[in-house]
Amino acid sequence: STGTLDSGSVSSRVIRIMYTSNAAASAGDSIKIAFNSDCGLGKVKAVKLSNTVLGVPLAPTAITQTLVVNNCGARVYRYTAPAFTAATATVGAATGYLWTLPTGPLGSTGTLDSGSVSSRVIRIIYTNNATAVAGDSIKIAYTSDCGLGNVRAVKLSNAALGVPLAPATITQTLVVNNCGARVYRYTAPALPAGTSTAGAATGYVWTLPEGPVGSTGMLDSGTVNSRVIRVIYTSNAAAASGDTIRLAYNSDCGMSKLKAFKLTILAKAGCVTPPLAKTSEPLFTKVITDIKPVNSKIEAQVYPNPSTTNFKLQVKTTSKEQIRVRIVDAMGRPFKQATMMPGEVLNFGVELKTGTYIIEIMQGSQRTTQQIIKL
After folding, report:
1. Calpha distance 163→248 (Å, rounded)
2. CA distances for 359 relative to 126, 281, 349, 363, angstroms
C-alpha cells in the first residue's frame, strides 16, 4: 500500500513501483496482472512482493589521525574518514558523514579548526597540553536513507609536551679590548623546532653576567631577548669561577633549562688604572641639588686618567638616605649603575671617552633632573 507508480502505467508491459516503506514484505504484500482481450479480462496472475528491510551502513572502518601543529596548548590534529560505502542487499548506501566532536578531559578542549561535522576531513585545535586518557575520543558515523550508521570511535593520541632542552652552546667573542671597557659578543644557537615530546622554542632569555667581573658588565647592544648581545665590562680583572652568563629558550610550554657559560675574560696586561689621588684636582664639578631632603646634594667630579687619554668619574653625596646613580651615554646606553649609602664616595671605574654623558640620580621612586656632562 506504500507503493506508487514510478514509471509506466497499469496498461504497460513494464512498470516501476516506488515503495516508501523499508519494511520487509509480508504475506499480504503482492502485485497482480492479467491479459486484456476483446473477449474480456484474462485470469489474474499474482506475485508476492520480495522486499527485505535494509539496515544502516556499517561503522567506518578507520579514522586517520595526523598531527598538524605541535604547539603547547594550541595543537591541531587532522581526522580523516574513509570514503562512502555502497549499498548491499541488506544495507543502505552511505550518503554523508556525521562527526561527534571529541569528548573527555582533553577532548572537551577541542574545537573545530576547519571543516564541519559533515565533512570527510576535519581539523581540531586543542587548547590543553595534557596527555590523552581513556575517556578522550572522537567518533564518526555514516548517514544514509535508512538512518544513522553505526559509530566508529578512536582514542585521541595526544601526549603532553615538555619545555625545550637548554641551549647547546654559547659563543663568546671579544670585540673591544680596552682596559676597563672591554666588550664581548655572546651568540646563542638558533631556536630549535618542536619535537614529539618538546615544544618549539619561541625566543631567548638571557640572565646577564654575575660574579666579580660579570657584575661589572652591562648591555652594550641587544636585549635579554636577542639571539646576539654585546656586554661591556668595566673591570680589567680576569674572570673567576663565579663569573658566568646564562641563557634559556622560551616556549609556549614555559622556560627551558638554563645554559650556563663561564666567562673566559683575561686581564689585559700593561693596563694600569691607579686610584684617584686625594690631592688630584678635578677637571670640573657638576652639582645636583634638586633631591630630597633639601639639604642634600650630589657632586659629580670628572678627573683625568693619568694612564690613558680617557676620563674618570667620582660621585659624592651628602644625602642621609640611600640613592642610586646611573651613567648613560648620549644614546641612552648604560655604562654603570650603583647604589650609594649615605655619605659614601663612589669611584666609577669607567673609562669615559670624549663625548656627552648623563647622570641620573634616584632616591626612592624620585629621579632628579638629569645632569649632563660633556668631556
Report:
1. 10
2. 52, 20, 15, 13
Q: Give dist(CA 199, CA 54) in Å, integer.
A: 50
Task: Report d(CA 342, CA 323) in Å as an integer.
Answer: 8
| Grid coordinates belonging to 334 | 648604560
Cα(309)–Cα(98) distance, rounded to whole angstroms?
82
- Is the bond leading into 293 cis (omega within 30 degrees of zero)? yes
Query: Contact 85/94 with Cβ under 8 angstroms?
Result: yes
Rounded to whole angstroms, the Cα distance separating 347 from 216 reads 13
Residue 282 and residue 299 in contact, taking contact as beta carbons nearer than 8 Å: no
Q: What one-letter code names the amino acid at 290?
A: D
From CA 178, how far away is CA 219, in angstroms rounded? Answer: 16
d(CA 70, CA 193) in angstroms, rounded, equals: 10
Can you give the pLDDT at residue 311?
58
- Nearest residue to 186 via CA among 204, 202, 165, 201: 204
Sheet of strand 171-178: strand arrangement: 171-178, 181-187, 228-233, 217-221
Instruction: Mean pLDDT check: name the lowest of 21-30, 124-133, 271-280.
Output: 271-280
Question: With contact defined as beta carbons under 8 Å apart, do 150 and 58 qualify?
Answer: yes
Amino acid at 224: V
DSSP class of residue 55 equals B
Scanning the chain, the segments in alpha helix (DSSP H) are 104-107
- Rounded-to-integer distance, Cα 221 and Cα 320, Å: 35
Task: Measure CA 104 to chain center.
Answer: 25
The whole-number pLDDT of residue 277 equals 42
Contact 97, 103 (CB under 8 A): no
| Nine cell digits for residue 12 | 504497460
Distance CA 371, CA 359 (A): 5
**Which has more pLDDT, 277 or 243?**
243
Tell which residue, 353, 361, 359, 234, has the closest CA to residue 305.
353
CA nearest 220: which of 211, 233, 210? Answer: 233
For the chain, the residue count is 375
Arithmetic mean of pLDDT over the chain: 85
Burial code of 285-301, b = ≥16 C-beta within 10 A, e = fewer?
ebebeebeeeebebbbb
3 state DSSP class of 369: coil
Residue the block writes with cell 652591562: 218
